[in-house]
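Q: For a teaching handout, I want to show students what a protein-ligand complex looks like in token form. Below are the inputs, and the small molecule is 2-oxoglutaric acid. Please produce the holo structure.
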Amino acid sequence: MASLTDSQHSHYLETGWLLLDDVTGVSVETMQNEVDAIARWPEDGEWMHHFEMTDRGRQLARTENFVPFSPIMNTLLRQSAIADVAGELLDDDAFLYKEKINYKLVGGAGFSPHQDKPAYPFVDQVLSVMVAVDDATVENGCLFVASARHDRLLPQDERGCLTSEVVAELQWQPVELRAGQTLFFHALTPHRSGPNLSRRDRRALYPTYNGASEGDLREAYYRAKIEAFADAPTGDRARISLIGDFEGRPA
Ligand SMILES: O=C(O)CCC(=O)C(=O)O
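A: Here is the structure, written as tokens, with 2-oxoglutaric acid included.
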């Protein structure tokens, strides 16, 4: 059972994010091997693989809905200290709302500045988490966050991302992670990331949690996503989310 210190809790409340070591309960190698295995799952399974076109060709950008098919990921995201800390920050028991792997392979695209909340239907109190599977650096596309701006929804453009006026006004700070570290961030914390310009992949797990008092919403979320993705894709960006934050090209 994890227990945050007062200063960790205050840091989260003030800034909207908290970086912790040692909450995964598994080795980096175990996470990397399982992510490698999931990336090899066939394209037509019940999980959801999403692809992007890059200068190196068609690449895997994201996998979602993998917990039911991976006992290792199920334990990691539902039974480790990650879920305990999520519960402490939500001030409730934490239910897994959804889960994704963002691969950001070499040449993979970044994400426009956004808040996650508009991508999460049916829920009020919700927490985003990034678990670094590989080191995340400025060069390979780590997150940049705007601290202490998680008190409200900021103006959005037609993609559901932040308007250019808001983006220019915010103070952006890179949050580099070593493989195995975990970043907890409020669903209203503005964040963005660049493309992977390095020669190494930058993979990360992103579990999202909601408070148990709002119910188990994971199935409802995935039903809504499947319904939204049933229409033929349009536009200049690969669609991987319920908002248009991903800057990758359609594959
Ligand atoms: O993985 C990244 O670089 C950013 C991911 C992100 O912001 C998201 O998936 O909402």
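A: Two things your students might notice: Residues 102, 104, 111, 116, 141, 143, 191, 193, 204, 206, 245 surround 2-oxoglutaric acid (CB under 6 Å). The domain at 6-228 is CATH 2.60.120.620 (Jelly Rolls).
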